[in-house]
């Protein structure tokens, strides 16, 4: 479990994130939503220790500040928004970098297969020998996810849950691979790990999240299950945009549709 | 799916696609052989007809040689060629590994201590000792003895590498243009200071400086090995432990930290290793250029960029490359010899240009 109490982050003296207290439990998928500049990525960076913060964050009971880099790497893996490589590594070599901190748990034979298993999970079997630099942006993003999955190869280790931090993991992917990646994150949470994901797509958040944290101007304005957070009132004020929430027929999951006065009506589409 | 052979021969069957570690290991082994060959060439090449083979035969009691030839051969080989060979190996490995470390640290295949001013900084440190060591700085330097020169060059290397990193790297990303331009500026500054020192140097010091600056192994002595060897050797040992972390660092500093690399400590170790290997090499041999860019690049073409294999391979090939270049420099205008810096530059300059052309074509990286 990850707990945040009164977490604030300032960059060059400007407060970006202020007084956030929240819990990110294991076995759950937590989504952070909010408009551009609301501090989503900044909050994630503080959780990754990329930025100094005030307040307290604990990761599986350990104070995040005093955790060694290797211990932190055993507890959580981070998927960045994008990664470029200056050297011609193969896909497999990139995925195997997930094992940098060592390989707690599996036996040697299993370790040798971890990169292939991870590639299979992101639908890139057979890509191991390709050069990373020659792949499309979407493929590179999936290779990075495979690297991250290789690092936290099992959602629970020695009785402690491990965490996946995903920073806009699907923004460069087509719809099939968006679902594929989110399915993988969902599976990680369902098997005991914790997932924290920054999402722009509210409908993916509605579909996959157990818990949504809504940020606006660096403050936590709403937190809870999708059905509680995704209401007309909340998201309209959150994004300052004309949005409408509906419910999908079978399960009643909420979905969000943009409404614009300039949108073309159905009349426009009709062939004369 | 799971065929019989995979379960029966797991070790062989699981050579996964894109896994080049077997190639890396094979090339490292092969390069050990190449280095042994280069060592033999180095011991047996030279203006005098001294034969290492004859000496070895005599020591083993196989032949009786004329005593005066034998004495001459013994002197030539033990006091001239053997220290020269050892120094060449240390410097070749040191310069090549420095290049590889800088390329990994700056996430940039064009980084090289000679190109971005680290060698100039080291040279300034050395020139200060050569010119001022006898007079102004004598009280400080005297207790350091033979180590004064390599330590001063090491200091110059640390200062320039740290300054370069500070200027050219922001949030873990190095802009290629900024790095090369900052390197030119730093090199020019070091050059200006060096120029002032050369201006006030005496005639004898000038002669020393000129030949030293061209880069040569000709003055190799056991004393020089004792002075520079330990610093280079420690730097190489430190570098040997940095391979895995350098791989992670190619993903960027933030990601390397997420993967468990203690990034700040790691960078300081890498910078000290670069400065140690470059500084000590420059102190005893002057400017030998392009080793740090030619050797890692050739190996990257063969075994890929995995630093765990690239590091030992670079050290081995760097040592072999410099021994070969040195042998060539002794033969090409025999009985005189060319400064080795001229040989490496004649080979490395065109190679570097070719590299730039390749990069222009190959947009993949």
From TrEMBL, chain A:
Pfam families: ABC_tran
Entry function: Part of the ABC transporter complex HmuTUV involved in hemin import. Responsible for energy coupling to the transport system.
PROSITE patterns referenced in this protein's UniProt entry, alphabetically: ABC_TRANSPORTER_1, ABC_TRANSPORTER_2
Record's signal peptide: none
Record keyword Nucleotide-binding present: yes
Source organism of the structure: Devosia enhydra
InterPro entries, A to Z: AAA+_ATPase, ABC_transporter-like_ATP-bd, ABC_transporter-like_CS, P-loop_NTPase
Protein name: Iron complex transport system ATP-binding protein
Family statement drawn from the similarity comment of this UniProt entry: Belongs to the ABC transporter superfamily.
TrEMBL record, chain B:
Gene3D superfamilies named among the record's database cross-references: ABC transporter involved in vitamin B12 uptake, BtuC
GO annotations of cellular component type: plasma membrane
Entry's transmembrane regions: 28-55, 86-106, 118-137, 144-168, 174-201, 222-242, 268-298, 310-332, 338-357
Subcellular location: Cell membrane
Keywords: Cell membrane, Membrane, Transmembrane, Transmembrane helix, Transport
Topology of the protein relative to the lipid bilayer: Multi-pass membrane protein
Protein name per UniProt: Iron complex transport system permease protein
Alphabetical GO biological process terms: siderophore-iron import into cell
InterPro entries according to UniProt: ABC_BtuC-like (IPR037294), ABC_transptr_permease_BtuC (IPR000522)
Family under the similarity heading: Belongs to the binding-protein-dependent transport system permease family. FecCD subfamily.
CDD domains assigned: TM_ABC_iron-siderophores_like
GO molecular function, one term: transmembrane transporter activity
Family matches, as Pfam families: FecCD
